[in-house]
Design goal:
415 residues; mainly beta; 4-stranded parallel beta sheet; 47% strand
Length: 415
């Protein structure tokens, strides 16, 4: 990238006709500022000077090249710049931005900072072929338009053919968005790509299929984030859905890490009320999964790879209509449970449906560390083992260092 240059936008004092985009003589609309730059090898920085009513303008907001849109550093307001628009549609714009990295630019970037974007009828921001996407201190508030089943990313769609593309969300609020998959965020990158959510709040987002809040085909990190009331309509992963490849070798698996996060009252009609992941090493630490609902795995569903729950995870009051009230693990290569707390999870299909944990084939290790299983209903197994399951209790005495609550039990189910 050769250089960067800045433009200023003010809906109160700017003009698209006589303005030149300087701080003293700004443009009125964001659309006019985007049309000003025709050199995709340069970084364009658009600074918003007003707290409210930053209008998009009657422009098609499509841009090729690296771009930053942010609140002006000299602005007098302390929080986000509210984005409004007047594109086609009585309730607001069709979308906020469709951006694409310039061809051959391996350092292409898109950065949105201190923005509040609302009332859009398509994916708010589409980021195509950017090596680096950063969304900082932004909120996305949709008016709840229905999306087609194949639409992805109600608020954000990050899609790239570049092998190490990354998207990071920090202090982002995403509420009331909808899509076919990924009610808030959809990430579609080649192997080697990844995502990060840090200190984010994702609430009341809805996917017709998978990933009520997040859909991803690459691994990522979820830290200090809250997921509440997100829904995967006919699919899996009420809050988060990951779809990997079964061909990934053991020594090169993708790893998704969840830490210090809360998943509360999320729902999926199929698998994983909070989290559903296939062919990934899922690690969870110091996180809470509470009152989530699904058919299999009220809180968590993982298939075909590795999972480690370690470090004060709480899995409580989740419900599975069929099996695995807390978690459902299917044909796992390896499972390790330590420093966990399973309590009052339920499964409703039978007395041996695994109210806390259901293991359908694979290997599991339960170390001699603090752990607790407690059932609400006395006639339901806490842990159910189905198919070919190998269980190793790493303990010095006859029974491992886990506590089974009164009336709870562990059972083996024959096929």
């Amino acid at each position: 990238m050769n250089r960067s240059y800045s433009l200023w936008v003010s809906s109160s004092i700017g003009s698209d006709e006589s303005g030149v985009g300087t701080e003293e003589n700004p443009f009125r609309t964001i659309g006019r500022a985007l049309k000003y730059n025709y050199n995709a090898t340069q970084l364009l920085v658009i600074n918003l000077m007003d707290a409210n009513n930053n209008v998009i303008g009657n422009w098609e907001l499509e841009y090729v090249g690296s771009l930053v849109i942010q609140k002006s550093e000299t602005a007098s307001f302390n929080w986000r710049a509210n984005i409004w628009g007047n594109l086609t549609g009585v309730d607001g714009p069709s979308y906020f931005l469709h951006g694409e990295g310039a061809q051959g630019d391996t350092a292409s970037c898109l950065h949105l900072k201190d923005l509040s974007i609302s009332f859009y009828r398509k994916t708010a921001v589409t980021a195509l072929n950017y090596m680096n996407v950063e969304i900082d201190h932004c909120e996305f508030l949709s008016s709840g338009y229905q999306h087609a089943p194949d639409d992805m990313g109600g608020a954000l769609l990050a899609k790239s053919s570049l092998p190490t593309s990354r998207i990071g969300l920090s202090y982002v609020e995403c509420s009331g968005n909808g899509a076919g998959s990924g009610g808030c965020l959809a990430v579609v990158y080649p192997p080697g790509g990844g995502f990060l959510t840090d200190n984010c709040v994702m609430e009341s987002n809805n996917a017709a299929q998978d990933g009520g809040a997040i859909y991803s085909n690459v691994s990522g990190r979820i830290t200090q984030s809250n997921f509440t009331n997100n829904v995967a309509g006919i699919g899996s992963g009420g809050a988060y859905y990951y779809s990997g490849s079964p061909a990934t070798p053991v020594d090169g698996f993708e790893t998704t890490v969840i830490s210090m996060s809360i998943f509360y009252e999320n729902q999926a009609s199929s698998n994983g009320g909070a989290v559903a992941a296939e062919y990934v090493f899922l690690k969870s630490a110091s996180s809470a999964y509470q009152a989530n609902h699904a058919s299999y795995g009220g809180a968590i569903y993982v298939k075909g790879d590795l999972v480690a729950l370690a470090g004060l995870n709480e899995v409580s009051n989740n419900v599975a209509q069929i099996s695995g009230g807390g978690i459902y693990l299917e044909t796992m290569r390896f499972t390790s449970l330590s420093d966990y707390f399973f309590k009052y999870n339920e499964c409703k299909s039978s007395s041996i449906c695994g109210a806390e944990v259901y293991l359908q084939g694979g290997d599991v290790t339960i170390p001699n560390t603090s752990g607790f299983f407690y059932n609400r209903t006395l006639n339901t197994t806490a842990i159910c083992l189905a198919g070919e399951v190998s269980v190793e209790f790493v303990a010095q005495d006859q029974f491992p260092g886990i506590a089974i609550g009164s009336g709870s039990k562990m059972a083996a189910q024959s096929d």
